[in-house]
Amino acid sequence: MSRSDWEVVIGLEIHAQLNTASKIFSGASTAFGAQPNAQACAVDIGLPGMLPVLNRGAVERAIRFGLALGSRVAPKSIFARKSYFYPDLPNGYQISQFEQPVVQGGAITIRIGDGEDAYEKTVRLTRAHLEEDAGKSLHEDFHGMSGIDLNRAGTPLLEIVSEPDMRSSAEAVAYARTMHALVRWIDICDGNMQEGSFRCDANVSVRKKGAEAFGTRREIKNLNSFRFLQQAIDFEVGWQIETLEDGGSFVQATVLFDPATGQTRMMRSKEDAHDYRYFPDPDLLPLVIEPEWIERVRATMPELPTAMKARFERELGLSAQDAGALTVTKEVADYFQAAVAAAGAAHAKLCANWVMGELAARLNKAGLEIVCAPVSPAQLAGLLLRVADGSISNAIARKVFEALWNGEGDGADEIIERQGLKQVTDSGALEAMIDEAIAANPKSVEEFRAGKEKALNALVGQVMKASRGKANPAQVNELMRRKLCA
Amino acid sequence: MPLSNEQLMRLARLARLSIPDDKVDITRKQLDSIFILIAQMQAVNTTGIEPMSHPQELAARLREDVVTETDCRTAFQAIAPHTEAGLYLVPKVIE
Fold this sequence. Notes:
The structure holds two protein chains of two kinds.
Chain A (H helix, E strand, L loop, with lengths): L5 E12 L36 E2 H13 L3 E2 L2 E2 L2 E4 L9 E4 L6 E2 L2 E6 L6 E14 L3 E7 L2 E5 L6 E7 L6 H17 L12 E11 L9 E6 L2 H20 L7 E6 L4 E7 L9 E2 L6 E2 L2 H8 L6 H12 L3 H7 L3 H14 L4 H19 L10 H12 L5 H12 L6 H7 L8 H14 L1 H8 L4 H13 L6 H13 L1
Parallel strand pairs in A: 14-15
Antiparallel strand pairs in A: 1-12, 1-13, 3-7, 4-18, 5-6, 5-17, 7-9, 8-9, 9-12, 10-11, 13-14, 15-16
Helix pairs in contact in A: 2-3, 5-6, 6-8, 7-8, 7-9, 9-10, 12-14, 12-15, 13-14, 14-15
Chain B lengths: L4 H10 L9 H19 L19 E2 L9 H5 L5 E2 L2 E5 L4
Antiparallel strand pairs in B: 2-3
């Protein structure tokens, strides 16, 4: 038996923190980084007699999500109490949704891998429901006690549950990344993984290829980076296959991933699983979402990445790969669209190359986000128009781009003019330089005439150098060839 | 179906209740009588009846997404048994 005899089955649960100003059931602030317990009001700390009141903003974000995934937005959904004991959960229960969640069904298309091996896949959604987050326990030593910070208690979460449709860690990561980009795209979650705004639990099982029934699953909790998600699943899959091939077995369980060792370890088995005793929360009446509300939200939805990608391919003639790269985040897409709007759709491919090439490399090197790029889309468009009309070569364009990046001028035209970078296309001037190069390099001339094509490049290089990069290489090449073959 | 002692102890553990040995039998008997009542209720035919989450036919009132609360930590922590550096201190729990 080998690894290839097994099929991996993965389902993901993602907790996305909704970017509301206030909490899901109270008017306390959700801002990150406040002093401990400074943003935990009477409702959040579970004082007796307090009543939760649902935040309209949290519901609206759930509706946006449902519309983006083509899900059913439930006209009526129910909040339930999920009971368990932990000191950072002051009420002894978490308000969540169990039966009748707010978002039901839906699907998302993901793309796995790059280049020729890339493929697309549709992952189905089971549901997404609204719930409150718990507080934080700090286990540093406070005289043998634990410290509790309830600022996070009551922060709105959308728990997004997929069907077990993924078949490898690569697919799970692609799904998580696509979902991460989407919640940011539709502006319901800031996606900050360091601050815990987006975290994943992975349900992993294996079965013999061709088997119908699912194997026993283990759930890996609280993965807060895509790298950990991949590592944890890979380790878990290896462990499960090895255990089964050795004739062993295991029970359904919850496990934790330890980034230091790269291993998963058991937290609790199914026998020890919490009995959450879900029941409808008597403090909260059913959430009713009228069709008019859904339509109002629909009217505010941005064009979604898949639709935009298809439009870039159809209307701008971009490849699937380029269109995909330019719709990875809303910010990149906005920048690209602004550049195309200024340069004209005819130059979309050129814009795409520069946004994904020079601009991306520069931003990466400087550690900047595209919204902070020192070169505006209009400035980039101005530069690319001069490349397109042959005024400057690509090499010179990179120089002008650098000047724009460093704030040495307002626009490409100004820099080209001031620094005298305009391409020399006057064939008289070029011919003089070509004659000079031929006279100065008899050896290269000899070699070319003897059939060595490469020698021509050396001669063209001499002319480019003499023109300080302002000659058009294609034009020089042609003129040079004509002279040498004359 | 009568409850076994093992089932009783598991329920007690989930509810974080400690039941002394000499109370196991009496607790089990009392719970059994509750379960008999539940069994009677479950015998009622509810096919086709939508489960009711709330007794009234009302919808939740929603609040606007605005911050209305201010920091009342000092007042809240005045009644807490132990606090330090703004944190509530509780007996150590590590799962």
